[in-house]
């Protein structure tokens, strides 16, 4: 086997998981499993449920925890090796972050995790080890195109989170300087200050792996996003949203930012979910794509060209 | 996948009056109060996530009885619930109601 050394700048590879708080687990499963079409992979003795999109090779990417409040507990990024984890832990401490190590096994079949809180107020984790069960329902060798037995929107993978919180400039700096993310796209103030208002950050070729929008309250969850292959899949998702009378936010439409085709809706606890298709790609030599805040309507909803109040202010 | 889609089942309906508003609306027992309001094309209360998570649709029920589902403790504390302060998207009318919309909470 060829051992790849740090294919990403500092060894952070991709989004690994998100733990979402839900008010009622059985209602939440109707949303994430039956409507979104994630696969239920496991449960633990705390009552948490582990799920994933069918194309994902790790055992799970979404963890649901029943709680009294909605929102996000943490988002985790997978790194290329345990050595990288140690290096990044030191870098985070040197940068001034408080770092906490969570023992292997706290999340089922996952190695130790290094947790820190970003200036935005959100908890993030780095980990390098998680059980790999392979793509769901198809073989590793001579695989078929897709598995039978998928439900609902048949979301293919957990793609990214958009988070609302404080001090986006400092948060973006931390992700770039310490963790090796690139600024894929950004929203800046239209005046000479060019103050950063939104940061869409990527560690690979995707348009974004995590995004932040400036917000007065720290640590708020805007949405978790899941990838579909085509615009037709997005329209089919919209049909399913109506068939199940699921609360909708907006869409189907296109984003100016990231150029994705998208629809937003809410889980039964009020956490927002996105499914999307397409979107920009990013190479390390790309300059950030920039939108100015006076064009935010078009940046976020390319067709309507106006923001709905809900998208800007409703967070969990 | 049929979270809310039980509206074809016959059920009791109640009238919801809103403090300082001339219009009232009818609420079916099996649909949450906020969606009943939206279906009546009225806008006394802000509409957010419709799932008890964001806190936009905070109201106080001044008169009447209702059933409530779990609401985010970030927005509705136990004390609030005792005072009839709830999220409109998580309550279901069990009698005629009199409600007052509340200022957006800043928790």
| Major sheet summary line of chain A | 9 strands, mixed
Shape of chain A: globular
Uncertain segments of chain A of ≥5 residues (pLDDT<50)?
A: 1-7
Gyration radius from CA atoms of chain A, angstroms: 19 Å
Strand order of the largest sheet of chain B: 2-1-7-3-5
Structural class of chain A: alpha/beta
What overall geometry of chain B do the principal axes of the alpha carbons give? Answer: globular
Kindly name the structural category of chain B. Answer: mainly beta
User: From N to C, what is the helix and strand string of chain B?
Assistant: EEHEEHEEE
Biggest interface between protein chains, with counts per chain?
Answer: A-B, 31 and 21 residues
How would you characterize this protein structure?
The complex is a heterodimer of chains A (316) and B (107). Chain A has helices spanning 25-35, 82-95, 168-177, 231-243, 296-300, 309-313, and strands spanning 12-22, 39-43, 49-52, 62-66, 71-79, 99-102, 113-117, 123-127, 157-165, 182-188, 196-202, 210-214, 220-227, 248-254, 261-266, 272-277, 289-292. Chain A is of the alpha/beta class and 316 residues long. By secondary structure, chain B is mainly beta. The longest helix of chain B is centred in the middle third of the chain and has 7 residues, at 33-39. The mean pLDDT of chain B is 90. Chain B contains two helices and seven strands, in the order ββαββαβββ. Chain A binds chain B through residues 23-24, 27, 30-31, 34-35, 68-71, 151-152, 240, 243-247, 266-272, 310, 313-316, and chain B through 1-5, 47-54, 56, 69-74, 89.
């Amino acid at each position: 086997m060829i051992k790849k050394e740090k294919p990403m700048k500092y060894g952070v590879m991709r989004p690994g998981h998100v733990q979402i708080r839900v008010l009622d687990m059985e209602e939440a499963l109707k949303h994430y499993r039956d409507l979104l079409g994630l696969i239920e992979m496991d449960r633990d003795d705390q009552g948490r449920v582990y799920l994933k999109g069918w194309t994902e090779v790790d055992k799970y990417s979404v963890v649901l925890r029943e709680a009294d409040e909605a929102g996000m507990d943490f988002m985790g990024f997978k790194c290329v090796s345990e050595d990288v984890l140690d290096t990044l832990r030191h870098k985070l401490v040197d940068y001034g972050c408080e770092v906490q190590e969570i023992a292997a096994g706290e999340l089922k079949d996952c190695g130790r995790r290094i947790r820190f809180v970003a200036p935005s107020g959100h908890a993030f984790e780095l980990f390098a080890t998680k059980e790999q069960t392979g793509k769901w329902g198809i073989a590793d060798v001579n695989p078929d195109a897709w598995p039978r037995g998928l439900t609902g929107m048949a979301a293919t993978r957990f793609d990214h989170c958009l988070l609302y919180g404080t001090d986006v400039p400092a948060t973006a700096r931390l992700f770039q300087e310490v963790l090796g993310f690139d600024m894929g796209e950004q929203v800046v103030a239209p005046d000479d200050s060019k103050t950063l208002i939104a940061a869409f950050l990527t560690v690979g070729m995707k348009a974004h792996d995590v995004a932040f929008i400036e917000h007065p309250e720290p640590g708020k969850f805007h949405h978790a996003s899941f990838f579909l292959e085509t615009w037709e899949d997005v329209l089919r998702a919209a049909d399913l949203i109506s068939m199940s009378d699921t609360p909708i936010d907006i869409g189907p439409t296109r984003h100016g930012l990231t150029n994705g085709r998208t629809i937003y809706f809410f889980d039964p606890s009020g956490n927002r979910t996105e499914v999307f298709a397409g979107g920009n790609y990013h190479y390390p030599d790309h300059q950030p794509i920039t939108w100015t805040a006076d064009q935010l309507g078009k940046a976020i909803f390319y067709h309507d060209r106006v923001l709905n109040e809900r998208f800007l202010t409703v967070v969990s | 996948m049929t979270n809310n889609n039980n509206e074809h089942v016959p059920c009791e309906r109640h009238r919801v009056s809103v403090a300082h508003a001339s219009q009232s609306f009818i609420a079916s027992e099996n649909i949450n109060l906020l969606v009943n309001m939206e279906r009546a094309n009225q806008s006394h209360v802000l509409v957010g996530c419709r799932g008890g998570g964001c806190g936009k649709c905070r109201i106080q029920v001044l008169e009447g009885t209702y059933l409530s589902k779990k609401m985010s403790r970030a927005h509705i504390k136990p004390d609030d619930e005792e005072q009839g302060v709830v999220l409109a998207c998580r309550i279901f009318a069990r009698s005629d109601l009199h409600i007052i919309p509340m200022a957006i909470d800043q928790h």
